[in-house]
Design brief:
disordered N terminus, 29% helix, 22% strand, alpha+beta, 350 residues, 10 helices
């Protein structure tokens, strides 16, 4: 009976004996009909084949792209995952050109992209954790600071960092968060709110001339954690100057030095770093810390711009602390998405 679902029996063994192919198989056969008997199948499509190999080389050798001209290397690394969009486009071009050469070449960037970013497509979310943290660049032009504060507090975070605070908006954030967070400190344009006692608060010099970074110690039930909040300088893409990020790069180095000199073993960094984990300019920080999104998140976790996130420049990084889960929070009145993570600080100290 099972055979009859696919084979029509006839006496003369004619066309009725042909198997009924699944729809996708029939479509594939139709598209490739005659390909392998066509001597041009290997000669056509040399341009898309070359483009595919070039795309693979850019992804493999991105660290070798120089920053001397318009910080081209950092610009490429900021949007590196998006180079994968070229793979399906080149695949379609190879099919249209009916080129076996192009289709085989497209496998190279596909494999490279999966090697670089395939792990981020899996769900690495774990259970447990004893401290929830969140960070949000609230945007100086935020039309609803009170609503933004309530949204972030609703995440259930024990510790919240806010960046791009204006002097006029600080009282609004303080009032909206007061009932949830007993302890807080604002240093310049960044602030830290905590359910647990907050000590050792001080600004961190990231060589800007004004305060956009701070450090505090949160006394959690599982032990002390040094929490850094930072908002590194913005970067710009200009036609005449490329990716202008020199000040951001200097500040990243200064932040890395501060974290390297931290006396506590357990460190959490929260903030808008205006750069991704792939950006070499952040090596002073990323070389000594882990991204909670990379270690325990799902997907890319893009946070900016909020309307159509294309890069994760809002970061939660840890050292001496184990990430359990990491996620992006719903959009607020800011042009950034808030991000949160749950981490394991360690056993309680009696």
């Amino acid at each position: 009976m099972a055979q009859q679902a696919y084979v029509t029996e006839t006496d003369n063994g004619g066309p009725g004996h042909e198997r009924r192919r699944p729809g996708l198989r029939r479509l594939t056969d139709r598209l490739t009909a005659g390909w392998w008997r066509d001597p041009g199948v290997w000669r056509r499509g040399l341009v898309p084949a070359v483009l595919a190999l070039a795309l693979a080389l850019v992804m493999v050798l991105h660290a070798q792209i120089p920053n001397a001209i318009g910080n081209l290397g950092s610009l490429t690394e900021t949007f590196l995952p998006w180079l994968g969009v070229g793979v399906p486009l080149l695949l379609v071009l190879g099919v249209v050109r009916r080129s076996a050469t192009a289709l085989i070449a497209v496998l190279v960037p596909a494999v490279v992209w999966l090697n670089l970013f395939g792990g981020q497509l899996t769900d690495k979310t774990g259970t447990g954790g004893d401290l929830t943290v969140a960070t949000h660049n609230v945007n100086a032009q935020n039309p609803d600071p009170s609503g933004t504060a309530r949204d972030v507090a609703a995440s259930g975070a024990d510790v919240v960092a806010l960046e791009e605070l204006t002097a006029s908006a600080v009282p609004t954030y303080e009032k909206a968060l007061a009932s949830t967070y007993r302890y807080h400190s604002v240093q310049g344009t960044v602030g830290l709110w905590s359910r647990y006692p907050l000590t050792g608060v001080r600004p961190v010099d990231i060589r800007l001339g004004w305060t956009r970074a701070m450090r505090g110690v949160v006394d959690t039930p599982s032990g002390e954690v040094a929490v850094y909040v930072a908002h590194l300088p913005s970067v710009r893409v200009k036609m005449e100057a490329g990716f202008t990020a020199r000040q951001r790069d200097k500040s990243a180095d200064a932040l890395g030095e501060a974290i390297a000199g931290e006396r506590l073993d357990k460190v959490v960094l929260l903030g808008d770093l205006n750069g991704t984990m792939n950006d070499r300019a952040l090596n002073a920080v990323t070389a000594q810390m882990r991204s909670t999104q990379g270690a325990s998140g799902t997907g890319m976790g893009f946070s900016w711009p909020a309307r159509f996130p294309m890069a994760r420049i809002d970061q939660i990084m840890v050292k001496g602390v184990e990430p359990s889960s990491s996620w992006t929070l719903p959009r607020t009145g800011s042009d950034h998405l808030p991000v949160a993570a749950r981490v394991e600080v360690g056993p309680s100290v009696s």
